[in-house]
C-alpha cells in the first residue's frame, strides 16, 4: 500500500518562477488563484518566497496563525468561502515585516517541510510562488515536488 501524502488530494501543481525580483510573481500567483477560485476550483497557494512572503498581505490574512493537526500544518483559509488555502513563512514570523536571514540548509529544510507537512486536503490546483532568481530554494522545491509530478511552470518576465 502506497503511503498517502499530504499532496495526494492535489490534482495539479503549478510553479510560478522568474529570473529576477519585482516582476509580479506573487501578484500573478494571487490573481491566478482568485481566477481559479472564481471558476469554481479548489485552490491552494504555497508561498516559498522565504525572504519576501507577500501573499498573506495580498490576500489580507497576514495576521492569521497556522495550527497543527494530526496530518501536519493546517493552511490558512482565505475569504468568506474559505476557497483558497495558503501556507507561507509569513505566518510563522513574529512580525510580518521580520526578515528571514537563513543559510541554504535551513531554507531547504523548511521548503521540504512545507511540501510534506501541510494538510492541503482536496485541491484542484496548488500554485507554488517561488523566490526570484535560480537559487537552492528552486532546486529544493522541484526536488520535493517531483514525486507529485507538477503540471508545469509559469515564467514571469518583464521587458527591460
Automatic annotation (TrEMBL):
Signal peptide: none
Transmembrane segments: none
Entry's Gene Ontology BP terms: iron-sulfur cluster assembly
Gene Ontology cellular-component annotations: cytosol
Assigned keywords, A-Z: 4Fe-4S, ATP-binding, Iron, Iron-sulfur, Metal-binding, Nucleotide-binding
UniProt-recorded Gene Ontology molecular function terms: 4 iron, 4 sulfur cluster binding; ATP binding; ATP-dependent FeS chaperone activity; metal ion binding
Top-rank taxon: Eukaryota
Protein name: NUBP2 factor
Native organism: Illadopsis cleaveri
Classification lineage: Eukaryota, Metazoa, Chordata, Craniata, Vertebrata
Gene field: Nubp2
